[in-house]
Design brief:
266 residues, alpha/beta, Rossmann fold, 2 domains, six-stranded mixed β-sheet, four-stranded antiparallel β-sheet, 11 helices
Length: 266
């Protein structure tokens, strides 16, 4: 990929100095692109995002090997506020908003990057998410799940990031709400030029919006490619896109080993 904004080079993350959660992960995110990171629970996706954003330090974890290169500079193991100042913002999987503050107060609580126009940022967020403009006086605790997700994305955009990290956009939301959020992310990229790294379990959602995708399992990248290549891959069809049926949802590795055994014996 040309004009790479973010590059992970054989990244390793260790919790409590003994538990390796991410092993040798390498990926690239091009400027103004949307890249998806697919995988099931425990695959290492969220740990990867938290390593990029600096929040793994709060979990007694560190990048022990490899590098996180952003805009040409290495940023691994830096504090979250320093990484935010570099232009990276995270939309977390949980604890997305301040429930006792209004929508407007949530956005006002964010400290944007130096030199950013706070008023213009707020106007852009309300234009991208008209529902937030209508609900600006409502306490965040009374918002629906979709509205909270919009506010979480808006709060991250209030930091004026060049790179937006989104952890589980679709989790717990109705398909119609997810479809709307995907459309908003496309507008974020098109109108603000923001680069997006999206973590998702829902392959249909991720491959619909992304320019490129990586599949993680057990802390490693096991496959990558364009959405067209990933959709056409037999293992991805069976495991992530539900083309194989069956009573028990097997792991990607099980599917891959099964297909290899069929080729070997059959």
């Amino acid at each position: 990929m040309s004009d790479v904004l973010l590059r992970l080079e054989r990244l390793e993350v260790v919790y409590h100095r003994v538990i390796t959660a991410v092993q040798g992960v390498s990926l690239e995110v091009p400027r103004s692109g949307i890249v998806a990171l697919l995988g099931t629970n425990g695959a290492g996706k969220t740990t990867t995002l938290r390593a990029i954003s600096g929040f793994i330090g709060l979990d007694d974890a560190r990048v022990t090997e490899g590098a996180i290169v952003y805009g040409g500079s290495r940023i691994e193991n830096r504090a979250p506020h320093r990484i935010t100042a570099h232009g990276i913002a995270l939309v977390p999987e949980r604890s997305k908003v301040f429930e006792n503050l209004s929508v407007a107060e949530n956005l006002e609580a964010v400290v944007p990057r130096p030199g950013a126009d706070r008023r213009r940022l707020a106007e852009s967020i309300y234009e991208l998410f008209p529902a937030l403009a209508r609900l600006r006086a409502r306490e965040a605790g009374y918002l629906s799940g979709g509205e909270r997700q919009m506010l979480a994305i808006g709060s991250a955009l209030a930091c004026a990031p060049d790179l937006l990290l989104v952890d589980e956009l679709s989790q717990g939301l109705a398909p119609v709400i997810v479809e709307e959020l995907v459309g908003r992310l496309r507008r974020v990229r098109a109108e603000l030029g923001t680069t997006i790294l999206l973590v998702e379990q829902n392959a249909h959602v991720a491959l619909d919006v992304a320019d490129y995708g990586y599949v993680m399992e057990n802390g490693r990248v096991v496959l990558d490619g364009t959405p067209e290549r990933l959709r056409a891959h037999a293992d991805i069809q069976e495991f992530y896109l539900g083309a194989g049926g069956g009573e028990r949802r097997r792991s990607y590795r099980e599917v891959k080993q099964y297909r290899r055994s069929r080729r070997w014996y059959g």
